[in-house]
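The freezer alarm interrupted the setup, so I double-checked each line after restarting. Inputs confirmed:
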Amino acid sequence: MAETAFTADDFQPAAATESAQTVSRPSLSYWQDAWIRLKANRRALFSLYLVIGLSLFTLIGPLIWTVDPSLQDLEQISQPPGANRDAVVVMPHRPWDGTVRLPEIRGLELAEPATTQSVRLAWAPLPNAAGYRLYRNLFPAGEGQALGLPLFETASLNERHFEDRLDLKPRTYHYSVAALDTQGRMTGAVHRLELAVARVVTAQEAQAMGLVAEAGQLKPGDRIKLRAHPLGTDYLGRDLLARLMAGARVSLFIGIAAPLLFIAFGVIYGAAAGFLGGWADQALMRFSDFVVALPFLLFMILLRVASGVQPGESGITPMVLAMVLLSWPAAARLVRGQILQIREEGYISASRLLGGGAPYLVLRHMIPNTLGVILVTMTFAVPTAIFTEAFLSFIGMGVAPPTPSWGSMCNEGIKTMLTTPHELIFPALFISVTVLAFNLLGDGLRDALDARMRSAE
Amino acid sequence: MTGAPDRGGEAAFNRSAARQLGLFGLAILVGLAALMWGLNLLASLTATAGGAPPAVDAANNAITVMLTEEPPQLDSTRSTDQVSGIVLGHVMEGLLRYDDRGELAPGMAEQWRIDEGGATFQLRADARWSDGQPVTAHDFVFAWRLGLDPENASEYAFILYPIKNAEAINRGELAVTELGARAIDERTLAVEFERPIAFFDKLTAFSTYLPVREDFYRATEGRYGADADQLLYNGPFALSSWVHGQSLRLDRNPHYWDQARIRLDRINVGYITSDPNTRLNLFKDEKIVMANLAAENLTNALEQRWHIQRHMDGSIFYLDFNHREERLTRNLNLRKAMILAQDPGELVYKVTKTPGYLPGESLFPRFLEGERGKFRDEHPAPTYQLDVQAARAHLEAARRELGLEAFPPLVLLAGDNPVSNIQTEYFQAVFKKNLGLDIKIDRQIFKQRLAKMTAGDFDLVLAGWGPDYNDPLTFGDLYASWNLNNRGRYASPEYDRQVRIAQGAMDAPTRMAAFAEMQRIIHEDVVIIPNYERGVAYVTHPRVKGIVRRVVGADTDYTYAWIE
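Predicted 3D structure, all chains:
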């Protein structure tokens, strides 16, 4: 056994060095760690980009695509995206007295070139006719009675001309004129005509649409391009892209403002209930149960009436208010549960022993530890709020025309779903994508912020 | 998360994963297809078992139709709406009625004589109620007294005013027994007129003039017309069941006098919906025999190669101004500015887009008869042409006259349905673009809109009017200062004078001149902005013939229909 000889040096305190405890990896805060985990989740990251893209679409979009969302382009009603927009300038419409400058009329003939302004037709007499009925069809008319849309009917044999101005589109039409007997029944004798309609505008219309500065700059026969509508137009010729941007402002404002407010309130309420405990907790939570039991739609309507929204004004404020008043209990319950759990943790007792007061405990220890849950609730509340807005606007309780919102646009688009589906598809797509993006982001955030709640990949 | 497997294992794993995924997807597809098929089968089973009957039920000689709304009630003395009019037109019959060509024909009355002072109606001997008892002259007297009784508060009481003392009774100044209509005997009805009237025969076909039997009415204790068994019928059909909010069933009335003209045994009102897409689908699925087409359904109807028919229903639609003292729209220059800033042609051809709609020019629609031909051919309506410059000049003049810095937003009251929604948004943009005027749209359901119109709670209202009887007066007296349907409270002594002339004169030239004068005043005073005359595009089942659409009276009438 070796003798150990202690010297005085051995009893000197150690010199303080920087590298006493080296952390071999860089130190990560809670948020940095969460961010790394979020970045690893491709799905969540993708939805984060989507959310950023939507925000840009809403905020920057209108600065780039400066089209008035309520401007009606009646030349291009219900136009699908990417439609041809060439037009020829013509004189303003004048009433037609039926004079035809053709040498001879055989069958059904065009009296003047067919344009979207008017199609002027004249026809030769049909045998045994006591009257005529004129039809227009989009398809070649078959045999029998199904000749198309009845546009005109006359019991006069001399009135053998008609001017069609109804909703003419630049496309091919099939016209037929059928002879009627004295009872108004079709005799079977028919003249037919297939014709292509050219798109025209008047110089005044071009000026009103902002295509030229002065109507005088254009003369009949000039070629001109109509306004561009990248996503097409709606039933009044309003630009769908501009309306989607304007609608996004309403939808996202409600989607973000309402959850922010009601979750903030829910957090304070829930934290108070959880921290106080006892009868105060009981009372507060029974009141939140009561609020849960209130029917949202009824409450919403009552609020709208009570807040004195004049007819023709948008009811966005009462809508947000109703959501805030009725949606906070979910967040409050969640936070209360968390606080109740955290209250019993060792570090809280330690902090208390060290003299931490109630506000300090709540603000420093409890709320930060529930932030993950709060943030996740928040991201899940956003799509719900957007959906509620869409639903309320869909049933006509939301924004007032001409302000668009995605929900009201769907409501208008659904009527023409079969003929012009783009009017429904685009706003519906935006609602779906937004809701999905926020949901996936919320899912990713939950994984990233709270390791215990991680969903199994 | 899975750990990174080695290279070779990864490919094998991917292959097997892909195969499993593919199999799983296939299984889901097959499962879904089976589920769909099963549900479809189930649906068809239940439909044939107890659901709604098909459009044409040849075995029972029955057809199925739809209504846009449920009749609020079927008390003829109080009914105001078109849907009640349709149902009443099938189950009741007045002194006169309209036939399948829209002409007046004898109904309960076999013969009648009308002169300046009054009229006498001879009721037919075989006119019976659905309980077998005869229809008597007392039933008409009772119904008319009821219609005028202030306690009954019928909104259509004014249509009885040509009868002596009617107006005074309705105001509560005279007892109902003072009415100038008496039953001389069971089958003879004598009517005294307040003043000479040229079209009393046409009035008697209107629903307020339908008979009501006193003992039955008393027995219902205020529930008359509220249910199928709370109503007595004298028309070709009788209501045998009325499930509120769902369906009505009309069966042939065995006591009806003219059995020869009824060819159907039953009419089912299987659906009550105002949604045009539902209507289209019901027709496509052969659930109903007739469907009106909305503009957005037309392409679909063309694709289906249906025989599309057209009907002008005689209704006019217009923007009505509020002429009350405190309203800006009382200012003539403002009204002129607004009428000059819009073009009804654009509205009809580009916005509403339904065949049959005609651009509005006048308060008097084109179907009205004049002296020899059509009224509108004999007295063409003066019109305004779109002129934005002139409109702005009028607006500026109005602004100065009213002493305003700028115009506050005007409230446009309208119904809440697709057709009026699109119009209100169109007008909102037009007045903004051409005049810089802000328009607030106030969408209300029918009842609420009517209440607001009556209260004068609007600047402009999207209104419509259909004819009650086949005479221009049904439109002309609308703007008489005393007419309660004059919701904007337009009042002009000259206009009132012309209405009095048209009411009192017996000869056509004087009356038509008065109507032409009214047309001129409406135009010059810009009382309304005419929008359009309505047309309807509709399709009917190829096996069902004889469905009658008419301008005055029940539109649509199935009493003449038959299955081929």
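Quick read of the result. DSSP finds twelve helices and ten strands in chain A.
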